[in-house]
Design a protein that fits this description.
This protein is of the alpha/beta class. Helices cover 34% and strands 22% of the residues. It is built from 12 helices and 17 strands. Strand 1 and strand 2 form a beta hairpin. Helix 6 packs parallel to helix 7.
C-alpha cells in the first residue's frame, strides 16, 4: 500500500461526531497526496458552519499524522455541493423517502412511551435517567421529548440552552447528551421564548417531524417522554406508533395512581401494549433507618393490578424519594451518573436492565444489542 493509500485509509476511518459514522462511508474524503513526509488531505463537510468542523479537522490531521513516515499534514476543508448533500441524506435514510416513519412495526428499534396520568410525578426525570442508564449498558438510545408544553428533557440532561440540531437539508441531527440522542421543542424556541401555545394540528405536526425528520441512526431503543394525560399528543402518537410499548409512571399516592390507570387504558385503545408500571417517589430511608412514606404507599402495585385485568402488567420498579435524584435533575447530570450508589440510581439501573432483557413485547423478538 502506498503512503497516500495509507493516509486515505486512516482519514476515512475518522468518525463524524454528529452522524456517528466514518467520514469515508459518508463520502467526505476528497484528494489526498503525499510528498515525502508531507501529506495533503482534502475533505468536505456537510454544511457551512458545521458545529463539528473543528473536531473533524483535528481528528483528520491526527489520523493522517499517525501514518508511519508522515511528519507534516495540511488539511483543506470544503463543503458538499447540494447534489452531494442530497446523495448523503438519501444514504442516511437507506433509501427511505423523506418524511416516512422509520419506526414502523418492522423496525428493529424498540419504541417505549413513558406516560403518566398527571403531571408532577417525575415522569421526565425517570425517562432521562432511564435513557442514560440504558446507554451506559451499551445500547444505542434515542429520546424524543414529546411533552411540548412542559418540555424539560434538555435541562435534565444538561444540554446547554441555545443548542440546536444541525440541519442537513431536510434532516436534523439530534444533540447527544450522556450517550443519548435527544430532540425537544426546547431546542427550537427563539431567545426569550419560554411558552409553546399550540393546539392539535401543530402538536401533531411537531411530533411527526421529530419521528420522521430527525436522523437517529440505528437505535436499539427509542424512548418518548409523553405529556401527562390523554390529550392531543397521546392520540397523535397512538396513530403514528400503534405498535409502541408503554411504561406508566405513578407516585404511591392514590390521587396519582387512580389517574395513571387511565393513561394505560387509553394506550391500549390504540393497540399499544403496557409493559409495566414504575412507582416514583417511593419510601425514603433516612440514615438512622427510619422509613418515610411521604407520598403514601401501594400506588404502583394498585396501577399494575388494575391494568392486569386483561394482561399481566408488572410493577417493574419502585424508585425511592431521593435528594440526589432531584439535585442531578437540577444540575443536568442524571443521578445514575452523579450518584450511582444512591438508592434511586440503583433502582433505575435495575429497571434499565429489566427492560434491556425483556425483549420486544408486541413482535415477540428479543432486543437487538447493537453497540454504537
Amino acid at each position: 500500500m502506498s503512503s497516500a493509500d495509507s493516509v486515505r485509509a486512516a482519514v476515512a476511518a475518522v468518525t463524524d461526531p454528529e452522524l456517528r459514522r466514518p467520514i469515508g462511508d459518508l463520502d467526505m474524503v476528497r484528494d489526498i497526496s503525499v510528498d515525502g513526509a508531507h501529506a495533503h488531505v482534502a475533505i468536505v463537510l456537510t454544511i457551512v458552519g458545521c458545529p463539528a468542523a473543528a473536531r473533524i479537522e483535528t481528528d483528520v490531521r491526527a489520523a493522517a499524522a499517525s501514518v508511519p513516515g508522515i511528519a507534516e499534514v495540511d488539511v483543506e476543508v470544503g463543503v458538499m455541493t447540494p447534489s452531494e448533500r442530497k446523495a448523503l441524506t438519501e444514504k442516511l435514510r437507506d433509501g427511505r423517502p423523506p418524511r416516512q416513519m422509520p419506526f414502523g412495526p418492522d423496525s428493529l428499534t424498540r419504541v417505549i412511551l413513558v406516560s403518566s396520568g398527571k403531571g408532577g410525578v417525575g415522569k421526565s426525570t425517570v425517562t432521562a435517567n432511564l435513557a442514560v442508564a440504558l446507554a451506559a449498558q451499551g445500547l444505542s438510545v434515542g429520546l424524543v421529548d414529546a411533552d411540548v408544553h412542559g418540555f424539560s428533557i434538555p435541562g435534565l440532561l444538561g444540554i446547554p440552552a441555545g443548542t440546536q440540531p444541525t440541519r442537513i437539508d431536510d434532516l436534523m441531527l439530534p444533540p447527544v447528551a450522556h450517550g443519548v440522542k435527544t430532540i425537544s421543542i426546547g431546542m427550537f424556541l427563539r431567545d426569550g421564548e419560554a411558552v409553546v401555545a399550540w393546539r392539535g394540528p401543530m402538536l401533531h405536526r411537531t411530533v411527526q417531524q421529530f419521528l420522521t425528520d430527525v436522523f437517529f441512526g440505528d437505535l436499539d431503543i427509542l424512548l418518548i417522554d409523553m405529556p401527562p394525560g390523554t390529550g392531543d399528543i397521546a392520540i397523535s402518537i397512538g396513530q403514528l406508533l400503534p405498535h409502541a410499548e408503554v411504561l406508566v409512571v405513578t407516585t404511591p399516592q392514590a390521587a396519582a395512581s387512580d389517574v395513571a390507570i387511565r393513561s394505560g387504558l387509553v394506550a391500549r385503545q390504540t393497540g399499544q401494549r403496557v409493559i409495566g408500571v414504575v412507582e416514583n417517589m417511593g419510601a425514603l430511608t433516612l440514615p438512622d433507618g427510619t422509613v418515610v412514606d411521604l407520598f403514601g404507599s401501594g400506588g404502583g402495585a394498585a396501577v399494575a393490578g388494575a391494568l392486569s385485568e386483561t394482561q399481566s402488567v408488572p410493577l417493574l420498579a419502585s424508585i425511592p424519594l431521593s435528594p440526589a435524584l432531584r439535585t442531578g435533575g437540577d444540575e443536568g447530570v442524571p443521578v445514575v451518573l452523579s450518584a450511582p450508589d444512591d438508592a434511586a440510581a440503583v433502582a433505575i439501573r435495575e429497571l434499565a436492565g429489566s427492560l434491556a432483557t425483556q425483549g420486544r413485547g408486541l413482535a415477540g423478538r428479543s432486543l437487538p444489542m447493537t453497540l454504537g
